[in-house]
Task: inverse folding
């Protein structure tokens, strides 16, 4: 007989429409936490990833909140249509798809949510490939933010957990498959077309990850020539 | 002749409708910074403080952004109408008017804004009376958050400045008067009535501050009996 969950059994999970946060959510559920999902509508270039995140949360019958925010100052290709989505960004530089302080903002809301519902853990899908480019995915930032947050709130035991931190995309995909993640319900492309473009960094990492995991991306449908053509580069 | 301001001359200022942030804004302008104001509409109990903040920014011809956010999880008397605004809270406990992680969220947006416009300083009106009750006003939190933020962004030199930190309310009012702050354009009451209630903590601190500074609060108009009556307690 299962005991009534303790407060510490609640966990806040940041969910975008992508692979990493989807796998994180499945992992959190497998760990036995009661997950509470946060999805952000920050007026990104397209709403597709939001609908995929919502679909994912609904499929799993997990309670979720969609938080609408605006960052009217732009400064990123993901929020500012005057900046083009690049087709291949240098691996070591901070990409133009970096949104100023995005994860700092997302984590702040999750700290508020966690405090209000009495959750002690916040899960985020940050990992190696991200933190090579995005400073707000790096482990030292996550630890430092956790420390700051615990000084600024009423309850002091909040922990920020990034269970995929040291995994490569292919390992995340393999983990997801073992957890039963339905990757049809994930969207990675920075552009919001009917089908993924296959050319932006996010598509390329995804295709490379599936190729390295030796699994076929379920988004590779027949009507999707660009994506299929791009996929051949990673075999 | 004044030189063209350098990038480092830009400053983001958090502005509520209250006394502390108004004085902070005047101080920032006196220091010679080009101020960029952030005002938050977080669906607080009343919009009055937002209109006072906007009025203040407009009067000073300072550019501002009103950021609309929602914290659907409640957890505070300021956002959740099912929790009553108390008339006298214990000084040492965290008050029910504490909004979970509010300043963490506000500071996160200000870090994003600062990064996007190339500002290096963020000014916040936190001070002693606040940080006795609100953990997200405490100096160790502010320093720790600054350190975390600098790890998570592209430009590493952001500084969070709380110039009123060690001042009592009466000293802040005296400073404001010396800077020419028009206190008619400030609103402190937690309730959003036509006139201040005189009974909530925020009114009480304000009245006490003016009394100790030996100045008459310009909000003490004749049509404002409750507030005037309450004021006599602090003489």
Result:
């Amino acid at each position: 007989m299962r005991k009534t969950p303790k407060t510490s059994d609640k966990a806040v999970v940041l969910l975008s429409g992508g692979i990493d946060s989807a796998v994180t959510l499945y992992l959190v559920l497998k760990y036995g936490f009661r997950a509470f999902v946060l999805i952000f509508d920050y007026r990104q270039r397209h709403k597709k990833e939001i609908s995929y995140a919502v679909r994912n949360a609904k499929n799993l019958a997990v309670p979720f909140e969609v938080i609408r925010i605006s960052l009217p100052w732009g400064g990123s290709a993901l929020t500012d249509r005057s900046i083009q989505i690049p087709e291949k960004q240098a691996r070591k530089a901070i990409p133009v798809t970096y949104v100023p302080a995005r994860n700092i903002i997302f984590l702040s809301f999750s700290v508020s949510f966690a405090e209000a519902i009495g959750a002690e853990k916040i899960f985020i899908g940050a990992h190696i490939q991200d933190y090579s480019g995005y400073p707000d995915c790096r482990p030292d930032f996550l630890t430092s933010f956790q420390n700051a947050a615990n000084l600024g709130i009423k309850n002091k035991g909040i922990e920020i957990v990034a269970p995929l931190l040291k995994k490569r995309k292919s390992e995340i995909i393999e983990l997801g498959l073992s957890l039963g993640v339905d990757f049809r319900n994930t969207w990675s492309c920075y552009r919001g077309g009917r089908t993924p473009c296959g050319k932006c960094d996010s598509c390329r990492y995804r295709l490379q990850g599936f190729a390295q995991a030796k699994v076929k991306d379920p988004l590779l449908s027949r009507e999707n020539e660009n994506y299929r053509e791009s996929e051949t580069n990673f075999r």
The first helix of chain A runs from residue 19 to 30.
